């Protein structure tokens, strides 16, 4: 098994093409506030995002969204996976999975061992976990894309399923992130931007290259 790379927060056909040519594996589209990378399903549909990204995996990202909105957004990018980045309960995750028949990625903010233990309760429900830096408290606070890392050594005690590693990853720390974790997917957003929401082609290309190299070194 090789590691997969997800570039999240895409908002244009140009950005989708940057991801495709970089050799990354997954496009992430954010349908949640507050985020400078949020898109609306009508925008994604009118700009033919599903066609532009048809040969790469597509993740639709939500924060405590209702089912009607989830359905519209999934359709707009023809999503392969659903990422839940809010306070979705176990029952809500089951409901969404049963309603849409797509794999579920459940995100958890990590700042201590207790956060990791708490996430294990979802092991029989979700398909993948996503571990990110814990956001600031408050309903109006952004849940992801914070350009903020956490202590990856906490993950040494993880006993659950496959997980995505996110939170403040960039060219300078990806080698350490690979070495200190057993992530099956590396998830980056702000680390390949010039400013919030503005992706950079060279940063994406370099990040993908360095991630692959770090993984190969670790597994030699």
Note poorly predicted spans: none
Name of the CATH superfamily: Aldolase class I
How many individual domains?
1
Cα radius of gyration in angstroms: 16 Å
CATH architecture: Alpha-Beta Barrel
Strand percentage, roughly?
A: 15-25%
CATH class: Alpha Beta
Using brief descriptors, characterize the structure shown.
globular, 220 residues, two-stranded antiparallel ribbon, TIM Barrel, 20% strand, alpha/beta
Question: Can you describe this structure in just a few lines?
Answer:
The chain is α/β, with parallel strands linked by helices. It has helices at 13-22, 41-46, 49-52, 67-77, 90-100, 113-119, 174-179, 201-218, and strands spanning 4-8, 26-30, 57-62, 81-84, 104-110, 128-133, 163-165, 185-188, 193-195, 198-199. The protein has one domain: TIM Barrel, CATH 3.20.20.70.
Task: Give an overview in words.
The protein is an alpha/beta fold and 220 residues long. It has one domain: Aldolase class I (TIM Barrel, Alpha-Beta Barrel). Helices cover 33% and strands 20% of the residues. The chain contains 8 helices and 10 strands. The strands form 2 sheets. It has an 8-stranded parallel beta barrel, surrounded by 4 helices. Strands 9-10 form a two-stranded antiparallel ribbon. Helix 1 packs parallel to helix 8. The protein starts with a strand and ends with a helix. The model has no long low-confidence stretch (mean pLDDT 93).
